[in-house]
């Protein structure tokens, strides 16, 4: 059938499974990213995210993750919601409104893997959803799905940035896509809007200053110097994406599993301040918010008050 036809077949099936888009790049060492990642780690921009320091080589070389890897199939899945939380309440990132994306995407990736085996033959590979040392955004950009914006998120002209990125790394040679050009221009909306000044220069985010880091990753107390700077974000933060002009083109997702729990959108600040563990477990039963646990969310809310 040939690498071109195989690529077309895989992209068509990815679309059928509900993925926003699919791009393919050659599995090879990420030469440009290596010095950037090293510099970022040396400046301690990963904060207490020690896991970012592990498996440095694997992060940059997919052939160390999958024997004989030839292609990285990158996939985007939209999570932009139809409705958002009410005004004047404590906020959570839109990506966490519905079911935990890890499970939703893993299931779709398994289906895509099975399809490849059935239609093409014995193809070995692994599926990755933000759960292994893979530089998702770098691979997505390399495969032409978008460009890395000044806020370090992947951006596309037609749909902005509210989507998840996942990969299949396989030992099958395919036709490869080419990167797209950067369309941030002279815009600095994300840099200007970040209340903790985490975007220290265009395209560089100091993870240890990011609201998402403080409200999800940080296990210790949030430093007092950031008091009053979180703009009511209690889990994650969407500020740099919300202000990005390209997100004018975001369209609501069509994945029922990403729909929010009905209570979530209507809860007021008072409701959040008085939340019980029972309500937490009910509202976030299958959500990524469970990662911060009830005690973590209470800590974050207490910091915002």
From TrEMBL:
GO molecular function, one term: epoxyqueuosine reductase activity
Keywords: 4Fe-4S, Cobalamin, Cobalt, Cytoplasm, Iron, Iron-sulfur, Metal-binding, Oxidoreductase, Queuosine biosynthesis, tRNA processing
Residues annotated for [4Fe-4S] cluster 1 binding in this entry: 184, 187, 190, 244
Pathway annotation from the record: tRNA modification; tRNA-queuosine biosynthesis
Catalytic reaction annotation: epoxyqueuosine(34) in tRNA + AH2 = queuosine(34) in tRNA + A + H2O
Main location as per UniProt: cytoplasm
Highest taxon, organism lineage: Bacteria
Every 4Fe-4S ferredoxin-type domain range: 172-204
Residues annotated as binding [4Fe-4S] cluster 2: 194, 210, 237, 240
Keyword Iron-sulfur: yes
EC number of this enzyme: 1.17.99.6
Binding residues for tRNA: 219
Alphabetized Pfam families for the sequence: Fer4_16 (PF13484), QueG_DUF1730 (PF08331)
Location of the protein in the cell: Cytoplasm
Binding site for cob(II)alamin: 59, 130, 154, 165, 212, 237-238
Active-site residues (renumbered): 130
Subunit structure: Monomer.
Family to which this protein belongs: Belongs to the QueG family.
Family matches, as HAMAP family: QueG (MF_00916)
Full protein name: Epoxyqueuosine reductase
Species in which this protein is naturally found: Maribacter arenosus
């Amino acid at each position: 059938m040939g690498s071109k036809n195989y690529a077309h077949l895989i992209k068509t099936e990815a679309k059928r499974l509900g993925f926003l888009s699919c791009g393919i790049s050659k599995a090879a060492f990420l030469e440009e990213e290596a010095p950037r990642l090293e510099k970022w780690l040396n400046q301690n921009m990963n904060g207490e995210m020690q896991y970012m320091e592990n498996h440095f080589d694997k992060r940059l070389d997919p052939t160390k993750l999958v024997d004989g890897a030839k292609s990285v199939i990158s996939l985007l899945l939209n999570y932009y919601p139809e409705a958002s939380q009410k005004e004047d309440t404590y906020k959570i990132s839109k990506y966490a409104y519905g079911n935990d994306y890890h499970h939703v995407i893993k299931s779709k990736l398994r289906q895509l893997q099975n399809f490849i085996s059935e239609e093409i033959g014995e193809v070995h590979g692994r599926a990755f959803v933000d759960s292994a040392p893979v530089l998702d955004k770098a691979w997505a950009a390399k495969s032409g799905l978008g460009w890395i914006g000044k806020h370090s998120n992947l951006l596309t002209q037609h749909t902005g940035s509210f989507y998840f990125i996942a990969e299949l790394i396989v030992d099958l040679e395919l036709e490869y896509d080419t990167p797209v050009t950067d369309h941030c221009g002279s815009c600095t909306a994300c840099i200007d809007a970040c209340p903790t000044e985490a975007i220290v220069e265009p395209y560089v985010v100091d993870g240890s200053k990011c609201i998402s880091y403080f409200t999800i990753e940080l296990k210790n107390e949030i430093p007092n110097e950031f008091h009053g700077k979180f703009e009511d974000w209690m889990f994650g933060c969407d500020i740099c994406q919300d202000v990005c002009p390209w997100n004018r083109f975001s369209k609501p997702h069509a994945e029922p599993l990403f729909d929010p729990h009905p209570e979530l959108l209507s809860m007021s600040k008072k409701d959040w301040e008085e939340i019980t563990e029972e309500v937490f477990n009910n509202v976030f039963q299958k959500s990524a918010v469970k990662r911060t646990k009830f005690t973590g969310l209470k800590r974050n809310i207490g910091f915002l008050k």
